[in-house]
Amino acid sequence: MKTMFQTLLATAILALPMAANAAGAAGALPASGANVNDVGSLQRGAKLYTNYCLGCHSAEYVRYNRLAEDLELGEDLVMKNLVFSDAKIGDPMAIAMEADDAERWFGKAPPDLTLIGRSRGADWVYNYLLSFYRDEHGAWNNTVLQNAAMPHVMWKLQGIQKPIYETHTEDGIEVRTITHLELETPGTMSPAEYQDAARDLAAFLEYTSEPAMLKRKHIGVWVMLYLALFALIAYLLKAEYWRDVH
Predict the structure, then answer these.
(1) Does the residue 205 lie in any domain?
(2) Between the N and C ends of the chain, which has fewer C-beta atoms within 10 Å?
(3) 53 Cα distance to chain centroid
(4) Domain presence at residue 38
């Protein structure tokens, strides 16, 4: 019994630095505030994804009927507002574009984004969506992912940003770096509204990377309570068994 208690304690202690490292990695970029438990935010993110992203980027590990259930939309509403192809409610969120055609048109087929929220993190997605700008050649670029092949598909919402440069000398060589971005041409949304939209889309992509997290986190609370109760009972049982020994 003592060995089991020590094992549980050691596991909990080892989990602490792992959580701290994850928090430190996420802190490299400004926090998005994305909340996968906010169903309204996920619904708005799904709308943005299907309207602005799904034309090129599939989410093939998520099916529309799962989306309808988890986001509390219902199948009819999903089919009417989120499906723009001949896909059926049980189909995955695929794109009509063939991979060979995409590679020929864009140079590289746009990747599936189902797991981007897990691999990059919601904070990265959020800041990436906020960081597009027009360079001096009129091409789209991004301060989070320089020379990204993806254009700014949501520019009508955000508007057009321009980079503000700072020149300094390193080892006798002049280097020009971007200090910040300024909104040059307003979009249909205010900056605050666009930040909310980017947050919703980041939350949705965090959800698609692990749809089970909605239920897992809810069940996890009860699991921890059960383990705490079990540990108490185990300790009392151990004390009862060893009372006569002492």
Answers:
(1) yes
(2) C
(3) 14
(4) yes
- Continuous H helices in the chain: 2-26, 39-48, 64-70, 75-81, 99-106, 116-119, 122-130, 155-158, 191-209, 213-242
Q: Which domain holds residue 141?
A: 31-211
**Residue 27 confidence (pLDDT):** 44
Q: Report which of 224, 233, 212 is spatially closest to residue 11, judged by C-alpha positions.
A: 224
What's the confidence (pLDDT) of residue 246? 61
Cα(241)–Cα(119) distance, rounded to whole angstroms?
Answer: 49
* Per-residue pLDDT at 128: 97
**pTM of the prediction?**
0.77
SS3 of residue 46 by DSSP: helix
Looking at the structure of the chain, the number of domains it has is: 2
d(CA 89, CA 18): 39
pLDDT at residue number 68: 95
Could you tell me how far CA 138 lies from the centroid of its own chain?
29
Question: Coil, strand, or helix at residue 226?
Answer: helix
Q: How many CA atoms lie within 13 A of 156 on its CB side?
A: 4
Pairing of strands 140-142, 132-134: antiparallel
Residue ranges of the chain with per-residue pLDDT less than 70: 1-27, 246
Q: Is 127 found in the same domain as 73?
A: yes
Please indicate, yes or no, whether residues 179 and 103 belong to a single structural domain of this protein. yes
